[in-house]
Amino acid sequence: MLASGRYRSHGDPRRVSTILERISAGDKGAVAACVDEYGDLVWRLASRYLDRAKTDIEDAVQEVFVELWQ
Question: Is the dihedral of CA 25, 30, 34, 37 positive or negative?
Answer without folding.
Answer: negative
